[in-house]
Specification:
Mean pLDDT: 72
Shape: elongated
Helix content: 25-40%
Low-confidence stretches: 102-109, 117-121
Structural class: alpha+beta
Oligomer: single chain
């Protein structure tokens, strides 16, 4: 029994000692937590700070019972409506100028006759053109307006220019073309306009030994005629036939 009592007392002491050690460890941890330095802020960029600005106290509102201060009376003088004219400045006397009588000035000037009074009533304006005059003027201007519009808008074909000088030049050039060549020069050949209407083509040959025409039969000529007489004929040139002239076309804008 004595042994059992000793074992129970020993277990109680151990439990008390363990409890005391646990409490001491808790107290030491709490004290260490109080004395630890504050953790450093993480370096993740600039941080915003709050700045508290104290506002001034609002003044108490004026009471409605306080009377307004009386307006100050203006001490400025009223401006007169009609100012007094300033006294004229005294100017020094002008020097006397000696006037010598001249023969022209000595004679009195002839009295000028007054100009006759102009009539107050204005003269009537000249009458404007009548309707008949306006229509007549429009008829005269129609031709010029039509020509101007055609020349600007539509280039119509017009006949070539003609004058006596131009015809003389053309005649001289034609005579030079009809002059016979030298024997050693090549003949000049030009086609004539056939006015007979049979479809034949005629050409005039101007050489050193004379002038003659070469006529080519028409395409609708009988084959037997061509076989017996040939397709070409050498004849004299008729006087009424002339070479084809080049048409000199021109427009109204040229």
């Amino acid at each position: 029994m004595n042994i059992a009592y000793r074992a129970a007392s020993t277990d109680r002491r151990l439990s008390l000692l363990l409890t005391a050690l646990v409490h001491l460890a808790l107290i030491a941890g709490w004290y260490a937590a109080r004395t630890l330095p504050a953790p450093a802020p993480p370096n993740d960029g600039p941080r915003s700070r709050v700045l508290w600005i104290p506002l001034p106290r609002s003044r108490p509102a004026l009471r409605d019972s306080e009377p307004a201060p009386p307006p100050k009376e203006s001490t400025a003088r009223p401006i007169p409506l009609h100012p007094r004219p300033a006294a004229p400045l005294a100017l020094p006397p002008a020097p006397a100028i000696e006037s010598r009588p001249t023969p022209a000035a000595a004679a009195p000037a002839p009295a000028q006759t007054p100009a006759p009074a102009t009539a107050t009533a204005t003269q009537p304006a000249p009458p404007g053109p009548s309707a008949e005059q306006i229509l007549e003027r429009a008829r005269r201007d129609i031709g010029g307006i039509d020509k101007a519009l055609r020349k600007e808008n539509k280039p119509y074909i017009a006949a070539p220019l003609d004058s006596p000088q131009m015809r003389l030049r053309q005649g001289i050039e034609h005579a030079r073309a009809m002059a016979p060549n030298r024997i050693w020069e090549a003949p000049k050949v030009e086609e004539l306009v056939n006015n007979t209407g049979d479809g034949a083509r005629r050409s005039r040959v101007v050489g050193g030994r004379g002038t003659y025409c070469v006529t080519e039969r028409a395409t609708n000529t009988d084959v037997e005629m061509i076989e017996h007489h040939g397709k070409l004929r050498i004849t004299s040139c008729p006087t009424h036939e002339e070479p084809a002239k080049k048409q000199e076309w021109r427009t109204l804008q040229d």
